[in-house]
Amino acid sequence: MGSPAADFVAFDLETTGLSPKSDRVIEIGAVRLGPDLRILDRFEMLVDPAMSIPLAVQRLTGISERDVQGNATPEEAMAQFADFSQGARLVAHGGIFDMAFCAALLPQAFANRAVFDTLDLARILMPVAPSHSLPLLSEQLDIEHDRPHRALSDAETTAELFRILVDVAEQLPASLLALMRQVAAEAPGPLHDFFAGVVSGEPSPSSHISPAGAFSERRGDLSGVSAPGPDRIAMAATGTNGHAQGDAVSLPDAVAAFLGPDGPLAATLPDYEYRHPQVEMSRAVAQTVDRGGRLMVEAGTGVGKSLAYLLPLALHARRTGTRAVVATHTVTLQEQLAHKDAAALSTLLPTPPATAMLKGRQHYISLRRWERFLSTPSRGPHGAVDLDAVRFKLKLLCWLSQTATGDRSELRLAGPDEQLWQRVQSEAEDCLGAACANWRDARCFMVAARRAAAEADLVITNHALLLADAETEGQVLGDYRTLVVDEAHHLEESATSQLGATLSAADVLGTVDRLGTPHQGESQLGIALAAAREATQRLFGDVKGFVIEQSGSDGAANSTLGLRAEVRELPAYQSTLLRSAWHAIRTYRTAAAALVDARGSRPFQGALFPQPDRLDDELALAAQALADGATVVERVLIAPSAEHVAWLELRAEQAELHEAPIDVAEQLRRAVFDRVDATVLTSATLAVGGSFDYVRSRTGIGSSAHELQLESPFDFLRQALTVLPAGIPPYDDEGYDQALTDLVAEVAVKLRGRTLVLFAGYSPLKRVHGLLQNRMANVGIAVLGQGLDGTRRQVLASFLKNPQTVLLGTSSFWEGIDIQGDALSCVVIAKLPFPVPTDPLVQARAQRVGDPFAELALPEAVLRLKQGFGRLIRHSRDRGAVVLCDSRLGTRDYARAFLDALPRAAVARVGLGEVGRVVEDFVHRGAAPPQAEEFMPSLATANAWEDEPA
Q1: Which of 716, 707, 691, 649 is nearest to 863 (CA)?
Q2: pLDDT, mean over the chain
C-alpha cells in the first residue's frame, strides 16, 4: 500500500429508514485506522431518534425503542462523530446512504466530504463474488463479523474489507493496474484517489486473496468429474446389475435400472428417493429417443423430470454418437442443468457425454465492442463525468482478467450496469463475424462457446437460441437428432418474441453514434448521418406523443397501443406518424447507401475503431443495421403484414415499435420439430383438463405426438389444502382490496408470516402493500413487495432469511421459485391469471379462433394458475394451503376447469372470517375442515370474452 499521511475512519450508521428527510439515525459506529490500516481507536453511540423505530428495523438490528430512549440526539451524536473523524478520510460500505444522513445532520462537517465506498470497490475488484452485501462478503472472506447490522461491528468489518481490497488491487498485474488508474482518472474523487494514492504499484506480501479473485470459478466445464467405481461403471454401461454387456439391454430398460432402488443413484446418494413417476417418464423419453417420434410430458412437482430426460439423452449419445439439445426458457434452469444435474450425472457414467452450455449471444461480452466502449470518454449527456460508466469499466477490466467464458452471469449486474452491458454485449447487428480479429484469433467468447457446443454430445441452451438456430438453418447449434424442450409452456411465447422485431431510438442512434463524425461533416455522408439522427428523434418523439394522446396516460412511463385498423385511420396517425415514418425510411436508406458508397475512402478516423483495418466492414455493418431499421418502420407503421400484429409501446418513457407473428405453430413445426428424429416437450404444466390440445395446437408439434401426464409423487391430500373464501367481493369491487388485505393479515398472524401473495398485476400489489404494511408491523410481521422493497432476488432472499414476512409478488413469482420447508406455508392467489384482453397479441389471436375465451384465455389462465399453485409444495415434507381469492370460482361454470387442473388436494369453501383459522389448523395440525371435499361450484351462464378483464 502507498503511504498517505492521513488516517482513515471506517464507519456505519443504523437508521429508522432510507430517507434522510423523514428518517433518523439510531446508532453510529466507527473505527479509526492509521495510514497502515491498523485500528487506532473505536467509537460507538446509540442515538435517540425521537420517533418510533419500525419493527423491521428492530428485527434487523436488535435495537429496541427502550435501548435508545434518553440517549443523545442525532445532531449531538453526529457532532461527536465529526470530532472523532476529523482529519481522516472516510470509508463506508454503501457510503452514499450514510453520507446523506451525515450531511443532513451536520452539513458543515460532511456536505463536501468524500468517502471510499467498499461496496463500489468490492464490485470492481471482486466482480464475480456471489454477493457484495457486507454480511455475505464477510462470510465469504472469513472476516469476523459477530453482530451484523450493528454499527460498530459493521464498521470494523468494513475496515477489514477495505484492507483486503487494497491488497487485492496491489496484486493486480502492473499493466492492468496502470490501465485502471487511467480509467479512474476520468473521475476525480475517491475512485481516482484510491487507485492513484491509496494503492501502490508493488505487490503486498500480506495479501489475503489471489490476484485472480477469491470468487473465480470454472464455468461451462463439465468434464472434470471423479472416476466412478467398477460396479457403477458396469451398471451404467448396461443398465443392469452388471450381468449384461454392451447395448444388449434396451435403452428404456437401462434407464429404469439406473434409476431403480438398486441402481447407481440409490447406491451413491444416501438420501436418494426412488420415484416411480420419474422412472416412467425416463422410460418414455428413452423410447422416444431410441425409436424416434414426438412426446409431450407433463411432470408434476417432485417427479424429477430433469434427470428423467438427461439420463436417456446421455446414454443414447454414448451408444449412437448422435448429438442432443436441451432448450429451457430461463437461464436459471439452464445453469442448473449444466452445473448441477448434468455434472452430477457425469460422475455416474464411465464415459459421460461431452456437455456444453450455450446461451444467446447477448450473454457474452464482445471484445470488439468492449474496446470501443473502453476508449470512449465516460461522459453523460451534458458533458459531466458518468461515474456509473467509470465504475463499470473498472469492474469489467478486473473481470476480463479472470473470466474464461465472458458470460455476464458471472457478474452481478444491477441498475445502470444493465444498460451499460448493452453497449458491450455481443449483438448480431454489430458483429463483423469472420472478419473480426477476435473471431479469427479464437478470442471471441461467443465463438468459443459455439465451438465448444459444436463439439459436444449434449448441448444445454435456451428457447431463444434454439429458434435463432432454426432461423439460420443450423448455423448456431450444428446438426443434432434429438431435442428436449423444457419449460415448454413458454415455447410459443419465446417463438413469438424471437420471430418478431423491435426498434427504438436507441437502436438507431447507437448505430450512428458508433461511427463518430466523418472527417468532413458537411460531406454527403455527414449530411446523411445527421439527417438519420434527426429523423429518428422526430419519429420516436411523434410515436411517444401519439401513444400518450391515445391512451390518455398523461405521460405514463409504460403503455401499449395496438395498431388496429381504426387506430391507423385516426387523423393524427395519418397526418403525423405516417409522415415521420416515410421521412425516417428515406433518411435511413439514404444514409445506408452513403455508407456503402464510402467504403474505401476512409471517411472516419480509423483510430476511433477497435480494428481500423476493418473500417469498410464496419461501414457495411452499419449500413445493414440502418436498412433493417427502415424495414421495421415500414412493416410496423406503413405496410403491416396480415400474418403479424404491430403495436407501439412506451417503456420507461421511451417509445418502441413492435411486430410479432400471430401464429408460430407452423414455423415451429417446419423449422424446429421436422429437423430432428425425436422431440420431447416437457413442463410441470402442459395439460388443461387432462388434455394437451392447447399446447399441441399452439406449438405445432402435431397430432402424432404421444402424451404422458404424471402426477406429482407428493401426497397432496395430506400435504395441501385449497381454500375458497365465500363472500370475497369481485376483484373489481371497491371493497376487494380491503377484503383481501383483511384475509392476508389474518392468515399471516396465524402463521407468523410465511405467506406469499401472488398478483396478476402491479397496481393491486401496490395498493394491498400500502394497506398491509403498518397493520403487520404492529404484530411483528414484515411486508415485502416486489419492486417496492427491492428486486425479485432481493425480496426473495429477505423472505428466506426471515420467514416472519408476507411476500407480495407479481408475474415472475408465479413460477421458478423454490421455497422448501416451513418458510412458506400459505400461497394466496389474488385473482385468476387471465391474459390481458387488450394486449395486441391476445386480440389478434382471438380474432382467429371461434371461441377466444374457451380456446385461448381459459387454457392460458389454467396453466398459469397451476404454476402459481406449484409454489406451495416443493418437498414430500412440506405442508400448506392455497387460498384462491377470486369470487368467479364460486359463480362461473369455468371454475371447474381450474379446480380440476389443480393437484388432488382437499377443497374447503369457508367464510372470509374463517380462512385464517382453517389455514392454521391444516398447517399446524394437518386438520382439514369437515366440509372439505372436491368442491364443484354451481354452474352459471358462460361469459363472453369481453367479460373477462385482466
Answers
A1: 691
A2: 88
Partners of residue 806 on adjacent β-strands:
755, 783
487: part of which helix (H) or strand (E)? none
| Span 423-443, pLDDT tens digits | 999 998 899 998 899 988 879
- Among 608, 601, 587, 612, which Cα is nearest to 529's? 587
Of 177, 198, 219, which residue sits at a domain end?
A: 198
Three-class SS state of 764:
helix
What is the mean pLDDT of the segment spanning 253-259? Answer: 94
Strands 324-328 and 720-726 turn out to be: unpaired
Are 524 and 569 in the same domain? yes
- Grid cell of 737 as nine digits: 382490496
Q: Give the separation between CA 727 and CA 655, rounded to whole angstroms.
A: 43
Q: Which of 518, 545, 546 is nearest to 530 (CA)?
A: 518
What pLDDT does residue 821 have? 83
Q: What is residue 241's predicted lDDT score, i.e. its pLDDT?
A: 39
- pLDDT at residue 812, rounded to an integer: 87
DSSP 21: T
* Beta sheet of 501-504, edge-to-edge order: 501-504, 654-661, 644-651, 559-562
CA distance 295 to 287: 10
How far apart CA 482 and CA 287 sit, in angstroms, is: 12
Any idea what DSSP says for residue 203? Answer: P
Same domain, 427 and 478: no
The count of structural domains within the chain is 5
Task: Single out the residue in 165, 198, 231 at which a domain terminates.
Answer: 198
Contact 304, 278 (CB under 8 A): yes
User: Does 654 lie in the same domain as 704?
Assistant: no
- Report the range of poorest mean pLDDT among 172-186, 281-295, 359-373, 376-390: 376-390
Distance CA 242, CA 255 (A): 14
Q: Where are the beta strands (DSSP E) in 360-500?
A: 458-462, 482-485
CA 793 – CA 786 distance, rounded (Å):
9
Residue 205, pLDDT > 50, answer no
Output the DSSP codes for 875-887: STT--EEEEE--G
Residue 1 belongs to some domain of the structure: no
In a domain, 731, yes or no: yes
* pLDDT at residue 944, rounded to an integer: 33
pLDDT at 59: 79
The three cell numbers of residue 822 are 416451513
Cα 767 from chain centre: 25
Question: Residue 180 is part of which domain span?
Answer: 8-198
Long-range contact list for 221-225, CB < 8 A, 24+ apart? 222/338, 222/339, 222/342, 222/343, 222/346, 222/352, 222/355, 222/356, 223/346, 223/352, 223/354, 223/355, 225/343, 225/346, 225/347, 225/352
Query: Are residue 479 and residue 436 in the same domain, yes or no?
Result: no
pTM: 0.86
At 295 the pLDDT is 98
Please report which helix (H) or strand (E) contains residue 559, including its range.
strand 559-562
